[in-house]
Predict the 3D structure of the following.
Amino acid sequence: MANQVNGMHHVTAIAGEPQANIDFYAGVLGLRLVKLTVNFDDPTNYHFYYGNGEGEPGTILTFFPWPGAARGRLGAGQTTATGLSIPVGSLEYWSERLHSKEIEVVKRDFRFGSRVLSLLDPDGMVLDLTETADDSRLPWTGSEIPVDKAIRGLHHVTLTEKSAALTVATLETLGYRRVDEEGSRVRYGVDGDAAYVDIVVDAAAGVGRVAAGSVHHIAFRTPDDASQAQWLGSLRDAHVDVSDVRDRQYFNSLYFREPGGVLFEIATDSPGFLTDETRAGLGTELRLPPWYEPYRSRISAALPTIDLRKTVPTVV
């Protein structure tokens, strides 16, 4: 088996109304909409990808917006929070900005030596803005957010589990190691990556429901198809119920559930989001994979109308 994954690739969640999702993640948080496409498994719905200027692995949040979807319910066997990295000293800026946009900050915390501001997105998804020193990733510079305050990428995900041992064993198989512990929260990291996996054990946690405001899956990075094939073979040798490799156009993916129930993905870094658009044109028009192109007019007509003005860069 490959020694380790290269950290986090992306987090994918379920949203409700697509326009509210765009207005919040591009307009309020200042992330770049790097790809406007459809759910490859259900092309009647959008798939939005947000990230930095080129949508580099580790900066990516993606959403399946389903208009009218019911709200999810947090519980055991779920990703219950997604952390985003912001520069040290920027928490006051974000607190004031969120207040000005009438977005409630639900908690202020000091966790593993960092200040954290927790909020809910329009569908109730928990986001932890986490001050992070020495995060050298370049943010998207085309929004109204000052560069020295802008989000750098993923910082952590929080998994809530009834028990941790088997989940920890899975993370260790992927190359993650325990790096810190604070109360009921244990943090795991992998060499060379800015994002962590936190496990919170709550034996009394109820059963969650994945719907709007819920994380659908978390994805880990591997460089290319060859390394992904190694993971596929090794996971099957270990009797893990893992999917075949699936072509996601901008990366290839395989999926499996860790023992606690969270859906994991291993995604390739290549080929990336510049395969069908220029850097300047990322996220500006609907992109479809080749197998859906013959049905473009039908697919486009069925999708909700959206306004992309919040995604237009002020500076590139």
Notes: The first helix runs from residue 18 to 28. The chain is about 15% helix and 35% strand. The chain has a mean pLDDT of 95. The chain has one domain: 8-311.
